[in-house]
Amino acid sequence: MPQSARTYATLKSDMAEFINLSRIVLYPEVFSLNPDEFREQASMYRMRALLMDILSSIYGGGAECEKAADGLFAKLGDIRATLETDIQAAYEGDPAAKSREEIMLAYPAFEAISTFRVAHELYTLGVPLLPRMMTEHAHSLTGIDIHPGATIGRYFFIDHGTGVVIGETTVIGEHVKLYQGVTLGARSFEVGRDGALVKGNKRHPNIGNNVVIYAGATILGGGVYIGDNCVIGGNVWLTQSVEAGKTVVAAHAEITTR
User: Fold this and answer.
1) Tell me, what CATH number does 18's domain have?
2) pTM of this prediction?
3) Is residue 87 included in any domain, yes or no?
């Protein structure tokens, strides 16, 4: 953990700058103030140096921090490719969207999802604290709470977004669309013999491909599977699995054939 008052005071601002730099490196044509003068190598060098400063402040530096930084930078191309699908999903899924630039600059979903995509890579590289700080920063800006440990497929879109919660062990397939107020959470927490919560077990639901979940729906439990091509209506409370191709109606939480 950070060792000095100065580190505590600057850690979050450094983290926010790192997020901004990551967007500039991934999309200089949109996020760089001077795209014609953008210097990719210089920006990537600054981004990596800042990442190393942050990791050193938290973990004290060393080979593991170097490995995490190298691992993230090796994945930047894949992250951009995945974000391209998320932008496409937003453009195709929202008739109000006029351009990809509008989605990237004005949609809270892109703010939250782009932060998550970078944070998730760091999380899988064994760096738990910084990714958590990153997604909580996005949460504070957008109202969208995505744990960096969640697994989320391509073509992911959150419409409006405020109040969305996606827990750590959630698994989401491809072409999934959520509306505001959706919770993908835990039904209960296992307690060990010592009375402490058991950590690391599967607690959050699994969402298949081509699923739409409408506003205010709550889906809880690690053993819950929402099958492919399902529609979950608004304000539904679900603690059971739903077979592929079904629609869950909000009024009575009735599972029907789509």
Assistant:
1) 1.10.3130.10
2) 0.91
3) yes
Which residue type occupies 254? E
CATH number of the domain residue 158 falls in: 2.160.10.10
Give the count of domains, the chain.
Answer: 2
Q: Which domain holds residue 111?
A: 7-143
- Using alpha carbons, list the distances in angstroms from residue 182 to 129, 175, 241: 25, 16, 16
- In this predicted structure, the answer to whether residue 30 has a pLDDT above a threshold of 80 is yes
Which pLDDT band holds residue 258 (cuts at 50, 70, 90)? Answer: very low
- Are 247 and 200 part of one and the same domain? yes
Does residue 65 sit in the same domain as residue 174? no
217 and 91 in a common domain:
no
- Are 19 and 132 part of one and the same domain? yes
For residues 11 and 53, is the Cβ–Cβ distance under 8 A? no
Cα three-residue angle 172-175-179, rounded to 5 degrees:
75
Q: Residue 255 pLDDT more than 90?
A: no
Contact between 235 and 219 under an 8 Å Cβ cutoff? The reply is no
How far apart (Å, rounded) are the C-alpha atoms in residues 130 and 236? Answer: 34
Average pLDDT along the chain: 90
DSSP calls for 36-48? GG--HHHHHHHHH
**Alpha carbon distances (Å) from 192 to 169, 202, 220, 232:** 19, 15, 21, 34
Determine the Cα–Cα distance for residues 82 and 154; give it in Å rounded to an integer. 6
pLDDT (mean) for 219-224: 95
Q: Do both 139 and 170 map to the same domain? A: no
For residue 181, give every residue at least 6 positions away whose Cβ sits within 8 Å of its Cβ, in sequence order, or none.
162, 163, 164, 215, 216, 217
